[in-house]
Amino acid sequence: MTTAAELREASARLLQETELTLPSLGLVPTMGALHAGHAGLATAARAANDVVVASIFVNPLQFGEQADLERYPRTLDADLELLGQCGVDLVFAPSAAEMYPGGEPQVRIRSGPLADKLEGAARPGHFDGMLTVVAKLLHVAQPPGARFRAYFGQKDAQQLVLIRRMVGDLNFPVEIVGVPTVRASDGLALSSRNQFLSGAERKAALVLPRALRLLEGRAARHEALDPDSVLEMLASERSVSLDYLEIVDPETLEPLAFNCRHVPFTGSALAVIAARVGAVRLIDNVQLGPE
Ligand code: AMP
Question: What CATH architecture applies to the domain 192-286?
Answer without folding.
Answer: 2-Layer Sandwich (3.30)
